[in-house]
Protein backbone atom coordinates (compact mmCIF):
# COMPACT_ATOMS: atom_id res chain seq x y z
CA UNK A 1 0.00 0.00 0.00
CA UNK A 2 1.26 3.44 -0.91
CA UNK A 3 1.63 5.77 2.05
CA UNK A 4 2.58 9.41 2.50
CA UNK A 5 3.59 11.35 5.60
CA UNK A 6 1.55 14.50 6.25
CA UNK A 7 4.71 16.63 6.36
CA UNK A 8 5.40 15.60 2.75
CA UNK A 9 2.02 16.87 1.50
CA UNK A 10 1.96 20.46 0.20
CA UNK A 11 -0.70 22.72 1.70
CA UNK A 12 -2.38 23.22 -1.68
CA UNK A 13 -2.77 19.50 -2.46
CA UNK A 14 -6.28 18.02 -2.73
CA UNK A 15 -6.84 15.31 -0.09
CA UNK A 16 -9.69 12.79 0.09
CA UNK A 17 -11.15 12.74 3.63
CA UNK A 18 -13.13 9.54 4.35
CA UNK A 19 -14.23 10.37 7.91
CA UNK A 20 -17.80 10.92 9.06
CA UNK A 21 -19.43 14.35 8.74
CA UNK A 22 -18.94 15.39 12.39
CA UNK A 23 -15.25 14.48 12.25
CA UNK A 24 -14.79 16.41 9.01
CA UNK A 25 -16.63 19.43 10.42
CA UNK A 26 -14.36 19.42 13.48
CA UNK A 27 -11.30 19.98 11.30
CA UNK A 28 -9.92 18.99 7.93
CA UNK A 29 -7.16 19.73 5.44
CA UNK A 30 -7.68 23.02 3.55
CA UNK A 31 -8.43 21.44 0.15
CA UNK A 32 -10.08 18.25 1.39
CA UNK A 33 -12.79 16.53 -0.61
CA UNK A 34 -15.18 14.86 1.84
CA UNK A 35 -16.60 11.45 0.93
CA UNK A 36 -17.28 9.21 3.97
CA UNK A 37 -15.86 5.70 3.62
CA UNK A 38 -19.31 4.08 3.42
CA UNK A 39 -20.33 6.40 0.56
CA UNK A 40 -17.18 5.88 -1.50
CA UNK A 41 -18.45 3.09 -3.80
CA UNK A 42 -21.46 5.18 -4.84
CA UNK A 43 -19.46 8.41 -5.22
CA UNK A 44 -16.37 7.12 -7.02
CA UNK A 45 -17.06 9.45 -9.95
CA UNK A 46 -16.60 12.46 -7.60
CA UNK A 47 -12.89 11.78 -7.06
CA UNK A 48 -10.77 14.57 -8.49
CA UNK A 49 -8.12 14.07 -11.15
CA UNK A 50 -4.72 14.83 -9.61
CA UNK A 51 -1.08 14.51 -10.61
CA UNK A 52 0.39 11.49 -8.86
CA UNK A 53 -1.32 9.73 -5.96
CA UNK A 54 -4.42 11.20 -4.30
CA UNK A 55 -3.76 11.31 -0.52
CA UNK A 56 -6.55 9.64 1.49
CA UNK A 57 -7.00 10.59 5.16
CA UNK A 58 -9.13 9.65 8.16
CA UNK A 59 -8.60 10.18 11.90
CA UNK A 60 -5.75 7.71 12.47
CA UNK A 61 -5.08 5.93 9.17
CA UNK A 62 -7.22 2.78 9.54
CA UNK A 63 -10.31 3.75 7.53
CA UNK A 64 -8.21 5.52 4.93
CA UNK A 65 -6.12 2.35 4.66
CA UNK A 66 -9.25 0.38 3.81
CA UNK A 67 -10.24 3.08 1.31
CA UNK A 68 -6.79 2.97 -0.30
CA UNK A 69 -6.96 -0.83 -0.66
CA UNK A 70 -10.39 -0.61 -2.27
CA UNK A 71 -9.54 2.34 -4.52
CA UNK A 72 -6.32 0.66 -5.65
CA UNK A 73 -8.45 -2.33 -6.67
CA UNK A 74 -10.55 0.07 -8.73
CA UNK A 75 -7.43 1.20 -10.59
CA UNK A 76 -7.05 4.51 -8.74
CA UNK A 77 -3.67 6.02 -7.82
CA UNK A 78 -3.98 6.77 -4.09
CA UNK A 79 -1.84 6.88 -0.95
CA UNK A 80 -2.77 6.49 2.71
CA UNK A 81 -1.87 9.50 4.87
CA UNK A 82 0.22 8.01 7.69
CA UNK A 83 -1.29 8.63 11.11
CA UNK A 84 -4.34 10.39 9.67
CA UNK A 85 -5.52 13.78 10.87
CA UNK A 86 -3.99 13.08 14.28
CA UNK A 87 -0.54 13.03 12.66
CA UNK A 88 -1.49 15.92 10.35
CA UNK A 89 -2.24 17.97 13.46
CA UNK A 90 0.93 16.81 15.24
CA UNK A 91 3.00 17.92 12.24
CA UNK A 92 1.55 21.42 12.59
CA UNK A 93 -0.19 21.28 9.21
CA UNK A 94 -3.01 23.71 8.47
CA UNK A 95 -6.45 22.58 9.62
CA UNK A 96 -9.70 24.36 8.88
CA UNK A 97 -13.02 23.76 10.59
CA UNK A 98 -16.59 24.85 10.05
CA UNK A 99 -16.80 25.98 13.68
CA UNK A 100 -13.42 27.73 13.68
CA UNK A 101 -12.23 25.40 16.46
CA UNK A 102 -10.06 22.57 15.19
CA UNK A 103 -9.10 21.40 18.68
CA UNK A 104 -11.06 18.14 18.50
CA UNK A 105 -9.12 16.29 15.82
Automatic annotation (TrEMBL):
PANTHER family membership: FAD-DEPENDENT OXIDOREDUCTASE (PTHR43031), PYRIDINE NUCLEOTIDE-DISULPHIDE OXIDOREDUCTASE (PTHR43031:SF1)
Protein name: Rhodanese-like domain-containing protein
SMART domains: RHOD
UniProt-listed CDD domains: RHOD
Span of domain Rhodanese: 9-97
InterPro entries (alphabetical): GlpE_sulfurtransferase (IPR050229), Rhodanese-like_dom (IPR001763), Rhodanese-like_dom_sf (IPR036873)
